[in-house]
Amino acid sequence: IFIIIALIDIHLQRFYPFNEAYEQLRPVLGTYYMMILSFFFCLAMIMPTLGHRSKLQGSFLFISLLLPMAFTISLVSFWITHSYVMFILVNAFMMVLYYLIGQRDSLKVDSLTKLPSYELLKRKLIRILRFKSSYTVILLDIENFRYFNTRYGHSLGDQILVQLAKFLSTFGVSNEVFRIANDQFALCLPSKNEETGAKIASQIKERMNKPWEIEQRSVYIQVNIAILNIPHQVDSIEEFKRAVSRLLLELKTVRNTSMIVYTRESTVDHERKMNIISALRESIANPEQVIVHFQPIYDATTEQIVSAEALMRIDDSYLGFLRPGEFIPLAEQSGLIVNLTKIVLAKVCRLIKELPDQSCVIDHIAMNLSGEDFESKIIGKTLLDIIEQEGVKPSRIGFEITESVVLRSYETVSEVMIELSLKKISFALDDFGTGYSNLKSLIDLPYDYVKFDKSVIHAAMKNPSMLTLLTEMLHKMGKCVIAEGVETEQQLELVRSVGIERVQGYYFSKPLE
């Protein structure tokens, strides 16, 4: 209405006509009508702004309320003083203010996906919590995203992020989908009940079961999902930040899960994990807290010790003795495993120096390498430097690697294995039979040993033919076979009967200090 009347007035010149010299603006009878229209114009801006204040960004809310107020003041000033200078200045000021706020907020938008950042999500949550609105926050973590960057290049990785951002944007408007970290997204959506998040999560999971066509490749993307409901499960911004921190950590450590739903009761478990990470950092600063146990590996025929596996333990003054299954995933997720690997290798070397070549029957001691260790391109040199500094023959050191580590960083693993093998360091493929085992990597990579997981040995008690076939195949490939988890005499007899050369397990010995 305001605009229509203003356009009509171009012809009528009833409200703000100029004189012939265009030097002075003189209000006439229509000024009263203009003031009334301006009043309703301001109401038309203020009422929707207040009605949707929980959804608006703070800066936009502020300026949307300030503009009609300033506009009204400038009109009153014009009416009293008959000077249009203030009217022009106010409008110019508001335009500059809009521009500056827009520029500031654009810095908080991800340049690749064009999604708002975690900082803007926190701002939104502050308003939601202030007005007690019901919302569901869905966190998504792309599983093994670094694999795509390493295997196919960063260009494909970027396209994955862009395509996923577009897909997630179909669930909400522009200020409801966020990129909160490199490979993590969040949706913040109005919810009618606590089932809203679960329904959307199911739709997302269903889409992930189908391939994505990116750069002429069919790519399968897996995401792990966490859900928290506001304000039912979170009622303050500080609690929200703690909940997000805990859930993002859990999404990285717990794989292949349908979804995680946040509850206050599960916070105790999160605090335990945070305490463990603190204990790991303290152990790196104080290596005496890193304990190395050794489990002997025996010749299956002579039952003599021929080698050993080094197993890391953590003895924390506050938490006590930590189990490997509890702290190793957290060490990998936090990146602390790299420094722990260096400490364990140094301690293994020192033990070997205490075992003279002539009198010791142990030909080498092996230790595990994590996928995180291979994130560094110079991991091979780093390991060799430690061995050299400790004054140990490289041939007395061995490393065990799982197939999942190989698949994650194939090129780096291959280069490191070849580099270290030239120094007579041995390699074992660990946990063979528990996951996806690639014959190509068995043929191409310089493995000296293949270790059957204990689940394979236990299953072979009912059907030994497959174990026999696998052992014969590996022997023909020139690999020495080790059976893990041998706990009974019957299992020992089985591995002997199929020709497995070495055994490891509680039947002979538990890990020793």
3D structure, described in words:
The protein has 513 residues and is α/β, with parallel strands linked by helices. The chain has 3 domains: 2-106, no CATH class; 118-262, Alpha-Beta Plaits (2-Layer Sandwich); 273-503, Alpha-Beta Barrel (TIM Barrel). Helices cover 50% and strands 17% of the residues. It has helices at 2-12, 31-51, 58-81, 85-106, 118-130, 145-152, 154-169, 195-208, 237-253, 267-285, 324-334, 337-353, 379-390, 403-408, 410-421, 439-444, 454-460, 465-476, 489-497; strands at 135-142, 177-181, 184-190, 212-214, 217-219, 223-230, 260-261, 290-299, 305-316, 320-322, 364-368, 397-402, 426-432, 449-452, 480-483, 502-503. Strands 8-9-11-12-13-14-15-16 form an 8-stranded mixed barrel, surrounded by 5 helices. A 5-stranded mixed β-sheet has the order 2-3-1-6-7, with helices on both faces. A two-stranded antiparallel sheet has the order 4-5. Helix 2 (31-51) packs antiparallel against helix 3, helix 3 packs antiparallel against helix 4 (85-106) and helix 10 (267-285) packs across helix 11.
The helix/strand class is alpha/beta
Mean pLDDT metric: 82
Query: What is the assigned CATH homologous superfamily of the largest domain?
Result: EAL domain
In this structure, how is the largest beta sheet organized? 8 strands, mixed, barrel
The level 1 CATH classification of the largest domain is Alpha Beta
Roughly what fraction of the amino acids lie in strands? 15-25%
- Radius of gyration (CA) equals 34 Å
Q: Could you tell me how far the N terminus lies from the C terminus, measured between alpha carbons in angstroms?
A: 86 Å
- The name of the CATH topology of the largest domain is TIM Barrel
- The neighbouring-strand order within the major sheet is 8-9-11-12-13-14-15-16
- Assigned CATH architecture of the largest domain: Alpha-Beta Barrel
Low-pLDDT parts are 18-25
> What would the principal axes of the Cα set say about the shape?
elongated
Q: Could you say how many structural domains there are in total?
A: 3
Number of helices: 19
Total strands: the figure is 16
Report the helical percentage.
40-55%
